[in-house]
DNA sequence: TGTTCATATGAATATTTGTTCATGTGAACG
DNA sequence: CGTTCACATGAACAAATATTCATATGAACA
């Protein structure tokens, strides 16, 4: 009800919006929850989430750019992992919270 | 690297995915940050975010269904507000975090 | 170093999601 | 109680995003 409102910078809003948006896609979220179990190569991830290698690879690229996962090579495979404990924490929190609010939505 | 993976229930994944997705839209995020300033009616919100009344109303409906905002009537106006402190907290945390990581993304 | 295997990627298509436009609805206030 | 004002909503359209398909890439290992 004021004349000048608090507002985060547009850049800031875009950044957190982007973060939420990346987390908000079903396929990416499945990938992330699968990776909570530990490092995994692309083939196994795509089996675990039941999607094509290509689709998974495209989404992994998005997760990489958003710094939510990181990659390393092991033999012939690219091994993906949750980028850091911070991401793991957010996922855990969201899962916990959702368990508390089963009636909502 | 195991045979049976930890996996949240599909319902759980959908719920948190939905939460993140709702937060991830630029218009909705603008609306929410505007509402951090306090309760506001639809007309004022649409002025504050610079979008049509209809577009804002559609997005408010989504925010309502996701329990991120709540409504009450005041005279002829519907007054919207952040649903609870929990939502406020998440927004604050995300804004803080984004300020700390300006170089990422 | 040539071949293979795992993954990445570009382009086309499919799908989802947001906005607009026109109009409906319902509470308020005369 | 009818009109008006503020908002909601359905359908059509537009824009963004995900998936598929075909193919490129590039490290590993013979």
Can you put this structure into words, describing what you see?
2 copies of one chain form a homodimer. With 105 residues, the first copy, chain A, is α+β, with helices and mostly antiparallel strands. Chain A has one domain (10-104): Winged helix-like DNA-binding domain superfamily/Winged helix DNA-binding domain (Arc Repressor Mutant, subunit A, Orthogonal Bundle), CATH 1.10.10. Chain A has 5 helices and 3 strands. Chain A has a 3-stranded antiparallel beta sheet. In chain A, helix 2 packs across helix 3 (42-49) and helix 3 crosses helix 4 (53-65). The longest helix of chain A has 16 residues, at 85-100. The A-B interface holds A 1-2, 5-8, 11-26, 29-30, 33-34, 36-40, 48, 65-67, 94-95, 97-99, 101-102, 104-105 and B 1-2, 5-8, 11-26, 29-30, 33-34, 36-40, 48, 65-67, 86, 94-95, 97-99, 101-102, 104-105. Chain B binds a DNA duplex (30 and 30 nucleotides) through helix 4.
Summarize the structure.
The structure is a homodimer of 105-residue chains. The first copy, chain A, contains five helices and three strands; from the N terminus they run H-H-E-H-H-E-E-H.
Q: Helix fraction of chain A? A: 55-70%
How much of the sequence of chain A is in beta strands? Answer: 5-15%
Shape of chain A: globular
Q: Counting H and I runs of at least 4 residues, what is the number of helices of chain A? A: 5
Low-confidence stretches of chain A: none
Strand and helix order of chain A? HHEHHEEH
CATH architecture annotation of chain A: Orthogonal Bundle
The count of strands of chain A amounts to 3
Side by side, the strands of the main sheet of chain A go 1-3-2
Task: Return the average pLDDT of chain A rounded to an integer.
Answer: 89
Question: What multimeric state do the chains show?
Answer: homodimer
- As a whole number of angstroms, the C-alpha radius of gyration of chain A is 17 Å
Q: How many separate structural domains of chain A?
A: 1
Can you tell me the CATH superfamily of chain A?
Winged helix-like DNA-binding domain superfamily/Winged helix DNA-binding domain
Category from helices, strands and their pairing of chain A: alpha+beta
Q: How many angstroms does the end-to-end distance of chain A come to?
A: 29 Å
User: What would the CATH topology of chain A be?
Assistant: Arc Repressor Mutant, subunit A
CATH class of chain A: Mainly Alpha
Largest interface in this structure: A-B, 44 and 45 residues
């Amino acid at each position: 009800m004021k004349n000048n409102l608090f507002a985060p910078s547009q850049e800031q809003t875009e950044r957190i919006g982007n973060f939420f948006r990346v987390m908000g896609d079903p396929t990416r979220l499945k990938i992330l929850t699968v990776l909570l179990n530990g490092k995994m190569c692309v083939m196994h991830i795509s089996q675990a989430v039941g999607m094509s290698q290509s689709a998974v690879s495209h989404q992994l690229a998005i997760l990489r750019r958003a710094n939510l996962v990181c990659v390393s090579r092991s033999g012939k495979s690219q091994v993906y992992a949750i980028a850091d404990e911070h991401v793991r924490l957010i996922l855990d929190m969201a899962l916990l919270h959702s368990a508390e609010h089963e009636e909502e939505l």
